[in-house]
Amino acid sequence: MFISVIFSRWLHVVSACLAIGGVFFIRFIVPRALMVLDETLQRQVFLAVRRYFKMVVHTVILLLIVTGIYNTWLAWDKYQLDKAVLHALWGTHILLAGFAFTILLYVLAGPEPPRSHRKLMAVNFAILLLAVAAASSLKWARERAVADHAARALSSDNR
Amino acid sequence: MNIYFAHMLVYLFARYLHIVCATVLVGGTLFYEMIVPPAIDELKHEQQLFIFARARWFFKWIVWLCAGVILVSGVISSYSHWDEYNRGPYHQAVSAYPNAGQAVQVSLMAQPGTWWAAHTSCGVLALIIAVSLTIGKAPPTQPIRWMRVNLIILLLVMFLATATRQTRLEAPQQMTNSVEPPESPSR
How many CB pairs lie under 8 A apart between chains A and B? Predict the structure, then answer.
């Protein structure tokens, strides 16, 4: 159990790294790096980068969903300890992740990117950062809820 | 402002920055090493070098910023959990258990401090490699090989971080489980 918990969490974090770092790189680094080429070549290389990134993104989304479901299933009992806070944060994390996946799939669909792909990728990067903030707060709130619950159990046992 | 609240806010913010910088660093390295080379494979060698050099120049500032933030936020997070990491191999059983106060030996692998030390040392090594790859006008010889090595270390660092967290959370529970119940007093 110990290994499976660590492995699924690790896989979730690595997949998130690929998604966030990839979005950052394709939106902010690649266009600047390609400026040395002429316009036709720029477009050709950008489309090639996009094609490879698309393959990575599809795998990453699948991994994030599968490991996310498993992690939620493992921690579901803990989410009942402070429903108001934990469910709100968990819901926010899922909602933001859903938005980010939808934008990623839309921007990377088809052989050509949509017109607003730059703006959408920048928005998506911000959404992904917010999803990380929600996940980070959720983990902190969950640990605190578990610690509070244990402290309450100890004090009631001692009485 | 309440001190407890301020401390929690700083800890949460540091944690958030640590994760964000790590994701940008690891994801950027993966992208730089795995996606860019096949995408520019058909270009001339000079053009490939130009693109790599420009990407390296822009990525350099990100790497330096992320390395600095990771170090500072890592120190803050370690300080917050220092008591848990700094426990010796012997712990006192928790007060709710019948053997309260009894010394219990915990294996090396179950001590969060062991995992924390591994995570920190590997993390610092990965940061040194990442920063050294971006220092100077020209990249070192065989930069892609170095990036691959660094990528493996970064993935290991993340695994160690996950293991540190898990052992930290499970340590009190294992401590309680490892205490044998007391013998019933003979009358």
Answer: 135
Length of chain B: 187
Distance, in Å, from the CA atom of B165 to the CA atom of B187, rounded to the nearest integer, reads 46
Please tell me the predicted confidence (pLDDT) of residue B166: 84
B-contacting residues of A 4-43, CB under 8 Å? 5-6, 9-10, 13-14, 16-26, 28-30, 32-37, 41
Residue B74: what pLDDT?
93
Q: Is A114 helix (H, G, I), strand (E, B) or coil?
A: coil
On whether any CB of chain A is under 8 Å from the CB of B100, the answer is no
Torsion (CA) A21, B132, B157, B55 in degrees, nearest 10 = 10
Check if B107 contacts A (Cβ < 8 Å).
Answer: no
Q: Is B115 on the interface with A (CB under 8 A)?
A: no
Prediction pTM value: 0.82
With cut-offs at 50, 70 and 90, classify the pLDDT of residue B106: low
Whether chain B has a CB inside 8 Å of the CB on A48: the answer is yes
Task: Give Cα B122 to chain centroid, integer Å.
Answer: 8
Any residues with CB less than 8 A from the CB of B89 and at least 6 apart, and which?
Answer: B105, B106, B108, B111
Could you give the ipTM of this predicted complex? 0.82
Residue A137: domain span: 2-157
Phi–psi pair at A55, nearest 5 degrees: -60, -40
Least confident of A35-44, A89-98, B66-75: A35-44
Tell me how many degrees the CA angle B99-B104-B105 measures, rounded to the nearest 5.
165
Residue ranges in chain A assigned as alpha helix (H): 2-24, 30-33, 39-79, 83-108, 117-158
Domain count, chain A: 1
* Both structure tokens of B19: 């994760």
Quick check: A142 and A75 in contact, CB under 8 A?
A: yes
